[in-house]
Amino acid sequence: MERAGKLISKLKLPPGSVTPQDLALAGWAEAVGKRIANHTRALSLVTDRLVVEVEDLIWQRQLAVLKTQILKRLEEVLGQPLVRQVELRIAVRRREPQRAAQPRPSKDEADRIEDPVLRTIYKQQRRSKSA
Asked: CB within 8 A of 64, min separation 6: which ones?
C-alpha cells in the first residue's frame, strides 16, 4: 500500500488545497483499521494533536494503551510525522428522535383517506366546490 502523503503529492494539486488536518483525518481509518474506525471518529487536528471521539470509556482505555502504536502507524500512513499526540474523547450520546405514542387525530376528514392520491383528489374537489 502506498503512503497517503506520496499518493496525494502525485496528484499535483495546487498548494494549500490539502491541509494537514485533511490528511490526518483521512489517514485515521487507514492507520487504525476498520474495526477501530467503526467505533471512533477523528474530529480535528490541533497543532500536532489529533482529537478523536470514541464510543465509550472502554474504547478510550483500550486505545490509550495503543497510542504509541497508533502514532507510529499514522506516521507510516501519512508519510510524515503530522500527529505527535492523540487525544481520546468520549462521544456525547445524542438522543434518538422520539415518535409520538399515538398519532394526533386530525380534524380534517380527508386525512382519514389512506390512499394519498385519492386524498389529494378529494381535497381538490372539496376546494373547487366551495369556491
From this structure: 88
Digitized pLDDT (tens) for each residue of the chain, 131 residues in all: 455 555 555 666 666 667 888 889 999 999 999 999 999 999 999 999 999 999 999 999 999 999 999 999 999 998 888 999 999 999 988 777 877 777 677 788 888 888 889 888 988 888 887 76
Per-residue CA distances from 129 to 95, 116, 123 (Å): 46, 20, 10
Q: What is this structure's pTM?
A: 0.61
Distance, CA of 122 to CA of 131 (rounded, Å): 14
* CATH top class, domain 4-90: alpha beta
How far apart CA 23 and CA 11 sit, in angstroms, is 14
Q: What is the residue extent of each domain of the chain? A: 4-90
Question: CA-CA distance, 10 to 126, in Å (whole number)?
Answer: 66
On the 0-12 / 13-18 / 19+ scale of CB atoms within 10 A, 77 is buried
Taking the CA atoms of the chain, what radius of gyration do you get in angstroms? 26
